[in-house]
Design goal:
two-stranded antiparallel ribbon; Papain-like_cys_pep_sf; endopeptidase fold (from Nostoc punctiforme); six-stranded antiparallel beta sheet; alpha+beta; 193 residues; protease; thiol protease; NLP_P60_dom; 18% strand
């Protein structure tokens, strides 16, 4: 619940105007009519009304906070994509873990470490145990794509959007872009949640 100090100036003005109106109505009514006014006038229940306003403002703030959190996640996902793309053309090297040469899991490990400061395990199978499983129809840029299953996971790449991913390709001999049509992954995991 937000406190009064977090309300916008407009919301504060509205809240004070409503409270003042209710006070003026209650004070101007003759005592004989006070009970009638109290029953008919919703502003006489200022505390309840103020709570409704606070709840509304809180809901708006919660929505704004969720939008801000989603924007932050999108920025983090884009950092992963940008880091992956910065290594396009680097040679494939079996067991490679640096920009001098990468294998698939050495590449994803480097990307997440340098984009987000996130330390991933060394192998594709170990990396596949991380994060939240997502449908291949719902992958977002920055998600990890895997080939194989269980302890038999044998390849990993970074989804970059539009049905494309970047991976250390043994066949291509370098870090390259590919599409699901070229080499379709088995499943995906989301580490940026």
């Amino acid at each position: 619940m937000l406190s009064y100090r977090f309300l916008t100036q407009r919301a504060r003005t509205l809240l004070l105007a409503c409270a003042l109106s209710a006070t003026m109505i209650a004070m101007s009514a003759p005592e004989a009519q006070a009970n009638e006014v109290a029953q008919d006038n919703p502003f006489t229940h200022i505390e309840s009304f103020a709570n409704e306003i606070k709840d509304y403002v809180g809901a708006v703030a919660d929505g704004a906070a969720e939008r801000a959190a989603e924007e932050e996640r999108a920025i983090r996902r884009q950092s992963v994509v940008d880091e992956a793309a910065s290594h396009l053309g680097v040679p494939y090297v079996y067991g490679g873990t640096t920009p001098a040469g990468f294998d698939c899991s050495g590449f994803t490990r480097w990307v997440f470490e340098h984009a987000l400061g996130m330390a991933l395990p060394r192998t594709a199978a170990e990396q596949s145990a991380l994060g939240e499983a997502v449908s291949l129809d719902e992958v977002l840029p920055g998600d990890l794509l895997f080939w194989g299953s269980g302890s038999g996971v044998y390849h990993v790449g970074v989804y970059v959007g539009d049905g494309e991913y970047i991976h250390a390709s043994t066949g291509g001999g370098r870090i390259m872009r590919a599409t699901f049509d070229y080499f379709a992954p088995s499943f995906a995991k989301r580490l940026v949640a």
